[in-house]
Amino acid sequence: MKKTIYLAQAIPYVNAAPHIGHALEFVQADSLARFWRLLGWDVLYTTGTDDNSLKNLQTAEAEGLPTKEVVDKYAKQFEGLKEVLNISWDIFNRTSSKEHFRGAQKLWSLCKKEDIYKKKYKGLYCVGCEAFYKPDEIVLGKCPDGHSNIEEVAEENYFFKLSNYQRYLERLIANDKLRILPISRKNEVLSFIAQGLEDFSISRSVERARGWGVPVPGDGSQVLYVWFDALTTYLTALGFGNEESLYRKFWINSQNKVQILGKGIIRFHAVYWPAMLTSAGIPLPSSEFVHGYVTLEGQKISKTLGNVIDPFELVDKFGVDAIRFYLLREIPAWGDGDFALLRFKDLYNGELANGL
């Protein structure tokens, strides 16, 4: 019998067009999938888009367009990377689909009743990260990841009792029952857990969400908070909550469930996600591969700085093989790496064209 392996790539927000940083993760994940297929393994590789985030809603409002229209527009561009970058995913899962809604609501319903409760809350919310932060984590108006769009939010939400899982998560990660690579990221997660885990919000009001998102089962006043919703994509891409044959084959019955993600969302994947799955009685992923960021000429890529590189234009000018080659050769698998056009051209001429 073939060895089965499920490779799940993190899903991007669709509040803007894809940039070179997105291309890196697609190419990394695709290369892993192709390598494992060469070994004769039965590989299922999934990705998709996070359609329900507050960032998407705010972009739509800024553009004066319906949220669905904006989400569909950018999701189509991300889906277009399959052909442009020669990506071999098997399933592209959008969180705005009815099938995903059913699966996300099923996960909520499976969680232990004592792990979910409702309370009034006031906190600092980073729109860029879609996360709440403590006051001492906001320095000079910015979150730890450098985003400055911080809002003070006060409302009644549902919370997940993450504090119940502190010792469990410490043992789980320290003993590599959930393997996090590289080890520096594993240590980062253990350090975060050691500071003490607080319960986290898993819903937001329909008013603040403008009615956009997955309704909370049994409470029409709330929709699922983006991370409870979006993380479920790793299950719903396999039909969880719908036709579940792939879910049984690649999640329940497979020992090899690998997730690939960026360092900025490690807290949600390595802490929140395993706690949610454990509460619901669902097996955990086996490994999480965490990559760094792509900078441009030493600067962080950002729409504000106007230094976003369009992968479609790059491929059109230099060809897909050259772009894939540079991303895999020049950008460290586990760390940050720089995209410098001069360096790219040097490698292109020196190693691909061989000086011709």
What is the number of strand segments? 16
- Return the structural class: alpha/beta
Give the neighbour order of strands across the main sheet.
Answer: 3-2-1-12-13-7
Name of the level-1 CATH class: Alpha Beta
Please summarize the sheet with the most strands: 6 strands, parallel
Q: What's the CATH architecture?
A: 3-Layer(aba) Sandwich
Per CATH, what is the topology? Answer: Rossmann fold
Q: How many distinct helices?
A: 15
Domain count, please report it: 1
Shape designation: globular
Strand percentage lies at: 15-25%
Oligomer: single chain
Q: What's the helical proportion of residues? A: 40-55%
Overall pLDDT metric: 92
* CATH homologous superfamily (4th level) name: HUPs
Q: How large is the radius of gyration?
A: 20 Å
Instruction: Kindly report how far apart the N and C termini lie.
Output: 48 Å
Low-confidence stretches at least 5 residues in length (pLDDT < 50)?
none
Report on this structure:
It holds the Pfam family tRNA-synt_1g. Keywords: Aminoacyl-tRNA synthetase, ATP-binding, Ligase, Nucleotide-binding, Protein biosynthesis. Belongs to the class-I aminoacyl-tRNA synthetase family. This is Methionyl-tRNA synthetase. The chain is an alpha/beta fold and 356 residues long. The protein has one domain: Rossmann fold. Helix content is 42%, strand content 22%. The chain has 15 helices and 16 strands. The protein has helices at residues 20-38, 54-63, 67-79, 81-84, 98-110, 166-174, 183-194, 206-209, 226-231, 233-236, 245-252, 266-280, 311-318, 320-330, 341-352; strands at residues 4-9, 42-49, 91-94, 116-126, 131-133, 150-160, 179-181, 200-201, 203-205, 215-216, 219-224, 257-262, 287-291, 294-296, 299-300, 337-339. Helix 5 (98-110) crosses helix 12 (266-280). The mean pLDDT is 92.
